Amino acid sequence: MRFPAEPFRIKVVEPLRRVDREEREKLIREAGLNIFAVPADSIYVDLLTDSGTSAMSDRQWAGLMVGDESYAGSRNFFHFESTVREIFGYRHVIPTHQGRMAENLLFSTVLKAGDTVPNNIHFDTTRANIEHQSAEAVDLVIDEGLDPTVIHPFKGNLDPQKLDRVLGELGKGRVPLVMITVTNNSGGGQPVSLANIRAVREVCTRHGVPLFFDACRFAENCWFIKEREPGQSERSILEIAREMFSYGDGCTMSAKKDGLVNIGGFLALNNAEWAERITNLLILVEGFPTYGGLAGRDLEGMAIGLREVLDEDYLCFRIGQVTHLGDLLDQAGVPIVKPVGGHAVYLDARRFLPNVPQPQYPGQALVVALYREFGIRAVEVGSLMFAHRDPRTGQMVYPRLELVRLAIPRRVYTTEHIRYVAESVIALYRERERLRGMRITYEAPVLRHFTARLEELNESETAHTVQKT
Ligand SMILES: Cc1ncc(COP(=O)(O)O)c(C=O)c1O
Question: What are phi and psi of 367, to 5 degrees?
Fold first, then answer.
């Protein structure tokens, strides 16, 4: 696929250290085969996440200099607030230091034990924050969204019929809100269509349940709508965004993605009573309502970034660069989730390593090999992240998708870096028979993938573990 060259030039450079294989082997072992514990300066191309890793523009850096660090009423807050209102359209704008705090504030305010929150697919922090309230997070993505081989323009769509059934069974008394994640990170960064959002809104209205967006990658979602949805190609990204958010009652946002900043987030909503309760909690745990855990300069960077991300030259390059990586891998026969999503290419670890069963963490085996052999950091989005014991049956439940995410930071890597990544993954695919499964030696009770420690299995242990699970 051809895509435009970088619509920016480089003014500041950050040198990269090249570490040899022997040192990488030592570092990954010391890290307990957990890529989160490897020092970042020993990584050549870091595709762990697109979150908080963007390069800010000269205007954003200039914006930091006009940061007003007043405890209350900082001018940067008002700039930020008016920007959020203009794009998202919600009345109450509550800044937080990142997305999960927005989730935590929302769910601690509106959920009670035993409630259910439907979503297309919950991101891990969203799920964890819901479960932290003893409520249930239910994923209702369309069936196509769970099959990495199916081509569909909007694989992130939430199935309105499944939603209707859940709301019919539980009623609004047990479902305080419905969420849609745009784009759908845990399902491969797949977009959601305007038509689908309208249909979900209709179901929510019929059952009297509010609809919230997890808006982290809203601009990328709008780009896909412009590109793929009939009748949308002549509209601006801002127009599409405004229509999209008009179907909701609020959103949580990690601005570390489409806010183009390294830290920041917010919660925006129309319900005044919820906003008041959330603001009171914000003051207790995060900060005064005009800074919410951030410096004034961070709010300014966010206000500027939220506008820059709507630029079509930027979005065309951004989505084009990610798609280019997917195309290079696909042409070489590497199994990936198709079509390629907005912020990342996802390797399908089950098809990449069919000899490693899910209870032996094939995704994590790939992650470790990519670092060890090539100095590339990716992240597992599969059994290590999501497998859990069902409290009712005591059985392990494994996710349907076993993925490895190569997330591309915004405005950071050149197309040459992207080619290096493609060549490395293709080389690993040719050598895939050599890779072995793993077992966990330490895990925390929640969000275990961040701190788990693992070890590689040898041949005989492999057979034993398979029998046991
Ligand atoms: C879809 C989605 N929701 C929520 C979050 C949480 O945001 P944060 O990391 O800023 O807490 C993320 C972060 O990656 C995400 O991708």
Answer: -60, -45
435-446 pLDDT tens trace: 999 999 999 988
Residue among 216, 252, 346 to mutate when testing ligand 1 (max atoms within 8 A of CB):
216
Can you name the residues that pair with 178 across neighbouring β-strands? 211
> Which residues' Cβ are closer than 6 Å to ligand 1?
51, 98-100, 123, 125-126, 181, 185, 214, 216, 254, 256, 265
CA distance readout (Å), 234 to 191, 237, 306, 320: 19, 10, 21, 19
Element (H, E) at 441: strand 438-442
Helices 75-88/237-246 angle, 10° precision: 80
Tokens of 413: 């890597």
Q: pLDDT tens digits, residue range 255-282?
A: 999 999 999 999 999 999 999 999 999 9
| C-alpha distances in Å from residue 181, one per residue of 82, 120, 124, 213, 228 | 23, 6, 12, 6, 18
* SS3 sequence of 58-94: HHHHHHHHCCCCCCCCCHHHHHHHHHHHHHHCCCEEE
